[in-house]
Fold this protein.
Amino acid sequence: MKYKKLADNIIEFIRNYYKENNLKGVVIGISGGKDSGVVAGLFVKALGAENVLGVWMPCHSKDEDKRNAKLVSEHFGFELKEFDLTNMYENYVKQIKDNYEVDDEVLVDANINVKPRMRTATLYYHAAMMSKIKKGGYIVAGTSNKCEIYVGYFTKGGDNVADIQVLADLTVEEVIGVGKAIGVPKVVVNKIPDDGLSGLSDEEKLGVKYDDIAKVINGEKVAQNVKEKIKKLHKNNAHKFKTPTFKKIA
């Protein structure tokens, strides 16, 4: 009942925002993971499946992720478009290598981060297009949860960019609870989270567990070394949340 109530509150939040701002639909990047699956389900229940457009954007992605993205769209009945970014990405990296004498090791982080930035540009392109086609405002929904945001586990200028956030105040445990309450397919809601880019799970990349991040956020007890690592991640990624801006002296 707790998570059913939470889901209902989010759905009401979406409906109120759309009514207040005279909006029509939403574009969501569907990764095949729990976060995007839960966001899609919430928006379908809030706006109707006909006003939800999912975009699956593979770039050297796993077949499992594609199957799960399709499963979510079929389960909730919203349209899913595929927009393959592989050629765009490979051409981008090729031009970088043509202009700089660098090896692959130097480009690892840059290559990982350019993908979500391409995906964000793609989502906003679709939102602008759908606004014209449907003659009503379409916006982009974010899919980041509270734990990811707290440790800065997102790409600046990429998956942190959105017009509306519905999971940003929910821990991973709460996202799973809401997902089960609204009927997200079990294979998706119970899926081990990963970015679909690096070949590693989120927790492997971070070096900490989401459950421990939630405990730190909530002021609960965790091992001191784990707490210090989480706090360090939070501090080291603080720059992602604000842009230093010069203020002239009057």
